[in-house]
Amino acid sequence: MKMINFGSLNVDYVYKVPHVIVRGETLSATDRNIFPGGKGLNQSVALSRAGLEVYHAGCIGKGGEILLQVLRDAGVNTDFVRCLDDIPVGHTIIQNTDDGDNCIILFGGANQAVTEKQVDQTLCHFEQGDWIVLQNEINNLKYIIEKAHETGMTIVLNPSPMNEKINDLPLEYVDYFFVNEIEAGQITGYPSDDAEKLMEGLGSIFPEAHTILTLGSAGSVYIYKGEIIRKSIYKVKAVDTTAAGDTFTGYFLASVIGGRTPEEALDLAARASAVTVSRPGAAPSIPVMDEVVNCRF
After folding, report:
1. What is the mean pLDDT of the chain?
2. 76: helix, strand or coil
3. Measured between alpha carbons, how far is 134 from 169 in angstroms, rounded to an integer?
4. DSSP string of 3-58, one letter each residue
5. How far apart are CA 195 and CA 216, in angstroms?
6. Which residues span the domain enclosing 224?
7. What is the CATH number of the domain that holds 29?
8. 230-288: pLDDT as tens digits
9. Does 161 sit behind a cis peptide bond, omega within 30 degrees of 0 on the bond before it?
10. How far apart are CA 120 and CA 115, in angstroms?
11. Position 263 in a domain
12. Which pTM value belongs to this model?
């Protein structure tokens, strides 16, 4: 079994601010840092640090060469990453508040340059029973899902950021969904603060899929064919929540593939996310398995 993440690669510009800026406001940042990121990169790093052999596919543009090294340093195979000289690297502008919350502006850049030819040339190296992880930060997602389904791969989707493109995807082919409460509300039409309704709606819309719903401080939920498993968070002082969801996704998947039960996977993912939010940055904050297992909360 092989795992490939066809996902985004970004440079994150993180500004420390007292609060998220509002319309018409000029706000002074107290600090700025530059980190490697992108949901795709973060999830590949998390999968690798959780113990899986991971391939990453995607595109980096001008100014993004450091992202390749970050993946390689984390043990991720980068043979399927295209380097483009005529397109800027994807990047984000992140406002990080004193209490650890964040607000993100995303520029796709080279992440929107994935071609059908690249998809074909990549997925021909994978086969039935392999896994593919996807997010909504790259283009040609519909084509990738269709090709992965034809191949017989297990398909994982984190439909973030939520937009109109999601409605055009063949979601019936997805085996695992990872959504937070905001995304779940957009998908189901229910209020994002009504966890019971969100669970009911997700179970109805995706009856054949394993759905993992993250609820911030309220924990997480696993939903599959009427089975519901809940897990609370491990409480820590939050420094930066940027990669918390990506860490959760990576550790949950690594746990399930490694033979753990969904309940055990939720617990390990919650532990890993707690370590992540206690550190600054996205990819650099993601822990290795030994840290997660041995951390005392």
Report:
1. 94
2. coil
3. 12
4. EEEE---EEEEEEEESS---TT-----SEEEEEEE-HHHHHHHHHHHTT--EEEEE
5. 11
6. 3-284
7. 3.40.1190.20
8. 999 999 998 888 889 999 999 999 999 999 999 999 999 999 999 999 998 888 899 99
9. yes
10. 9
11. yes
12. 0.92
